[in-house]
């Protein structure tokens, strides 16, 4: 990730650290803020409160900051979180 982090952000974007320690991004041209790194944006549009992240193996997973849960599948393509929690023996979060 260090090599990736050394790549410049797209024009208009800056990186910041939120008071809770999470990194977020601001586009000063569009007045948009995002938890998702604009260098990794794809055609996948995430709902408000969601962020795509990558685990230690470089595999994507998705963070729902509203519910404080994670999942492997993009939002809208996974099993209902209540069903996941019922099937899980841990906290009901992934990974």
Describe the structure.
With 95 residues, the chain is α+β, with helices and mostly antiparallel strands. Helices cover 12% and strands 27% of the residues. The strands form 2 sheets. The chain has a 3-stranded antiparallel sheet, with no helix packed on it. Strands 4-5-6 form a 3-stranded antiparallel sheet, with no helix packed on it. A hairpin with a 4-residue loop joins strand 5 (60-64) and strand 6 (69-71). It is globular and about 30 Å long.
Instruction: Summarize the biggest pleated sheet.
Output: 3 strands, antiparallel
Low-confidence sequence ranges: 79-95
What fraction of the residues are assigned to beta strands by DSSP?
25-35%
Query: Helix tally?
Result: 2
The percent of residues in helical segments reads 10-25%
Spatially, the strands of the biggest sheet line up as 1-2-3
- Output the helix-strand order: HEEEEEEH
């Amino acid at each position: 990730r260090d090599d990736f982090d050394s790549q410049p952000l797209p024009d208009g974007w800056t990186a910041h650290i939120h008071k809770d320690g999470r990194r977020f991004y601001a586009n000063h041209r569009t007045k948009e803020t995002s938890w998702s790194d604009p260098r990794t944006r794809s055609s996948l549009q995430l709902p408000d409160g969601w962020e795509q992240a990558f685990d230690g193996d470089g595999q994507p997973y998705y963070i729902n900051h509203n519910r404080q849960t994670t999942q492997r599948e993009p939002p809208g393509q996974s099993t209902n979180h209540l069903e996941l929690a019922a099937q899980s023996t841990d906290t009901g979060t992934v990974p």
